[in-house]
Amino acid sequence: MEKVIRLKDSSEIKVGLAGRSRGKTIILPVAKESVYGQEAESLKLWGVDPESGQHFVEGLADMFQVLYFDYEGHRMKHPNPDHLTPDQIVEDLLFIANDMNVLHFSYYGYSWLALVGLQLAIRTERLESLIMGGFPPLDGPYKEMMVVTRSTYEQAARNQYTPIMKDWQDSSSPEKVDWDQVQVKIDTNQTKQFMTLYQHLMDFDDRAVSLNPAVPKLAFAGEKDTIVYGENFGGVTVDIAGILQRNQQALEEMGWDVRILKGDGMDHTKAMHPETVLPVIKPWFVSNLLDG
């Protein structure tokens, strides 16, 4: 079943419900719509699966009910430059769950949608389990991402009416881009909304978070998930893998399961692929939601 839901800001998002109608529900905001042709080929250059959303849904729907939508894609089409705050995003997620008659749910998010999962967990008691991929629950790089997003917004504003000829899209992944040479040309509203998100997280202390110990929690990242940004992006390093590894023991003492995904080139992009993620999250969901 699919339907279009109108959110508080009057934007409309396509949402689907698949799988076992009476099963445990997993909210999947990373379910990007499949793309084909040249757009698909461009995504493949960056190591992105152009049918990842479909693969995620199909991979989980045999055992669970999946509430799926592409929240990032929605916000790129319908930017919310001044109000994309943690409160607003959580309100959107709960509004979608309510509209689809889903009371209790688990959540899987990757990268910035993983940190959204943590914000969701501290704002609702409806969560049954939480998986954060590609963003650590402890000592998250909020300040570094603030620098990156502010620099991206400032570049976008400067380059709004300037032709950009950099051929950086031919790089196979963000980790292999020469970030000193990249220039950004994108809708300033698209970039500003993420700056707004991180601005509202500058005072957030994830070490002060106390989650319900009865809620199972998993955090994972690829072992090569480290991006060194050039001066154009603030000259910062976002070391997801390093942070997660350093805090693994502390997280486990807090009730988190932690997985560092090994493999050739297991960077931020590769560790988000369905063929990488599903063998990790599906058995974990089964063990924590269905077994016993």
Question: What would you note in describing this structure?
Answer:
This is Alpha/beta hydrolase. With 292 residues, this protein is an alpha/beta fold. The chain has a single domain (2-140, 205-227, 240-290), classed as Alpha/Beta hydrolase fold, catalytic domain (Rossmann fold), CATH 3.40.50. It is built from ten helices and ten strands. The chain has an eight-stranded mixed sheet with strand order 1-2-4-3-5-6-7-10, with helices on both faces. β5 (105-110), α5 (112-121) and β6 form a beta-alpha-beta unit. α2 packs parallel to α10 and α6 (142-158) runs antiparallel to α7 (188-199). Mean pLDDT is 90; it is low at 164-172.
Question: Short description, anyone?
Answer:
This protein is α/β, with parallel strands linked by helices and 292 residues long. It has helices at 37-45, 52-60, 71-77, 86-99, 112-121, 142-158, 188-199, 240-246, 248-253, 274-290; strands spanning 2-6, 12-19, 25-28, 65-68, 105-110, 127-133, 217-222, 226-228, 237-239, 256-261. Helices cover 37% and strands 18% of the residues.
